[in-house]
Amino acid sequence: MGAQGDGHLLVVDDDERIRGLLQKFLIRNGFWVTAARDAAHARSILSGLEFDLIVLDVMMPGEDGISLTRSLREDIATPILLLTARGETEDRIAGLEAGADDYLAKPFEPKELLLRINAILRRAPAAASEAEGPKVLALGPVRYDVTRGEMWQGQELIRLTATESALMKIFAAHPGEPLSRTQLVEDLGRDKGQAQERAVDVQITRLRRKIESDPRQPRYLQTVRGAGYMLAPD
User: Fold this and answer.
1) 190-200 as b/e, with b when 16 or more CB fall inside 10 Å?
2) Where are the alpha helices (DSSP H) in the chain?
3) pTM over cut 0.85
4) How far is CA 76 from the centre of its chain?
């Protein structure tokens, strides 16, 4: 996907002016856009429509964006980009831990928002290329279908966010090989920096909860001291 977007976005912001500006800007850049004024309005819309990505303001009256993200993650894997007025790293980390794919601090340049949206949509699950190597990786009771980018436990599909899916594709292409946090940040198409490396740590923690029987003693998604992380399938 290039500079021009496509797909259906849900913009959730309690500020009517900002909501309108975002909607106009994103429509001008090729997206279908639906807008919601708060979490309850967003839930109502999501009960009847599916979206390619949700742009969600954190600071809203009533239920805030982080709480809504955590709740939505129980049912859907739609990518979520959080907009936050807070510059504090811990607030951003809280959003990622809740299941967001990325965050953007206000105020921001509209063009940066567009770049972040397109980067997330590029990471969204898609059929993997026909590469050499095993097509299904066994991770104990969990299996990862490399070709389809799907993770299963028995007959149950394990829901992965766009970022989790992108990380699994990267690890599956290098089984048994340690990958540094810097390399993972680069492969995810993110800006370099300590904050992004910390964000990768959060996403790894979330992935472990879906793969490992004991996420605190990981058997399959291992930490390799001084080298990074490694996927070690059976």
Assistant:
1) beeeeebbebb
2) 16-28, 39-46, 65-72, 89-98, 110-123, 162-172, 181-187, 194-211
3) no
4) 12
**CA atoms within 13 A of residue 234's CA, in its CB half-sphere:** 11
The C-alpha atoms of residue 85 and residue 209 are separated, in whole angstroms, by: 29
Which whole-number Å values give the CA distances from 143 to 146, 208, 210, 214, 227, in the listed order? 9, 13, 11, 16, 25
pLDDT tens digits, the chain, 234 residues: what are they? 334 457 899 999 999 999 999 999 999 999 999 999 999 999 999 998 889 999 999 999 999 999 999 999 988 889 999 998 766 677 788 888 999 999 998 889 999 999 999 988 887 654 334 444 558 889 999 999 888 888 999 888 898 888 888 899 899 988 899 999 988 988 887 766 677 888 889 899 999 999 999 999 999 999 999 999 999 998
Transcribe 4-62 into DSSP letters. S--SEEEEE-S-HHHHHHHHHHHHHTT-EEEEESSHHHHHHHHTT---SEEEEES--SS
- Amino acid type, 191: D
Distance separating alpha carbons of residues 156 and 147, to the nearest angstrom: 18
Counted residue by residue, the chain has a size of 234
SS3 category, 187: helix
Residue 138, CA atoms < 13 Å, CB-side half-sphere:
3
